[in-house]
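Q: Please design a sequence for this.
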């Protein structure tokens, strides 16, 4: 049986940073499920499919072949054979992923892929529904969160460091809108699993968060 850690939480809580650290410390594979939803969103954007076109999305889901490979320990996402990893982290793709991930056709396809990965590999998987839906039997479940103010400030600092001009208040509003959508969709909404441990990272350093989670790992 593979050893699985599930990390869920809203956008900007620090899931991917922490999951990568834990994966490295424990020699586990890091599975970024958000990247899979983003790859599907990229495919829909490229094909001009509207976010609410249920039939169109279903048809494109059948065409899109998404696979995950590991190169030098890094997750690489392939979309119909093309490495799209570098194209996924834009606001446009992120917003499209949030909107189209409500579609059952998208979720069914990607959840199946995620379950399959987790049975084969010891992994840390992060997302929105990992503890509740993808890996209900995970060995450890963490629900990572932080206030929307703190998450917006982190995103603002990250963009500013890259030289991108942005507005803190607008980022906070976008984050709250995305939280609302992710938490209120009909299919597998974002919520803390009953047996998940809540970690609020608002006033913690990355090292403190990683140490806290490592303290719960029994391997
Ligand atoms: O974690 P992220 O920002 O890369 O995710 C992008 C969107 O994908 C997010 O707004 C909701 C969706 N998502 C999801 O529905 N389920 C997951 N397990 C991961 C992401």
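A: Design:
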């Amino acid at each position: 049986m593979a050893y699985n850690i599930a990390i869920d939480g809203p956008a900007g809580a620090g899931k991917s940073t922490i999951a990568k650290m834990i994966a490295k410390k424990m020699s586990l594979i890091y599975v970024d499920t958000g990247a899979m939803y983003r790859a599907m969103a990229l495919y829909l954007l490229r094909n001009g499919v509207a976010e609410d076109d249920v039939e169109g999305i279903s048809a494109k889901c059948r065409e899109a072949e998404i696979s995950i490979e590991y190169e030098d320990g890094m997750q690489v996402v392939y979309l119909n054979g093309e490495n799209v990893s570098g194209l996924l982290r834009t606001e446009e793709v992120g917003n499209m992923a949030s909107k189209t991930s409500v579609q059952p056709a998208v979720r069914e396809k990607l959840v199946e892929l995620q379950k399959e990965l987790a049975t084969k590999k010891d992994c840390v998987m992060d997302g929105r529904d990992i503890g509740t839906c993808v890996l209900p039997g995970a060995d450890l479940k963490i629900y990572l969160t932080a206030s929307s103010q703190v998450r917006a400030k982190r995103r603002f600092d990250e963009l500013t460091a890259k030289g991108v001009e942005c507005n803190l208040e607008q980022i906070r509003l976008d984050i709250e809108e995305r939280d609302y959508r992710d938490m209120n969709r009909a299919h597998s909404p974002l919520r803390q699993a009953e047996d998940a441990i809540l970690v609020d990272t608002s006033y913690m350093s990355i090292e403190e968060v990683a140490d806290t989670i490592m303290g719960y790992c029994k391997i």
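Q: Thanks. Anything notable?
A: Residues 11, 33-34, 37-38, 94, 97-98, 101, 127-129, 178, 182 surround 2'-deoxycytidine-5'-monophosphate (CB under 6 Å). The domain at 33-121 is CATH 3.40.50.300 (Rossmann fold).
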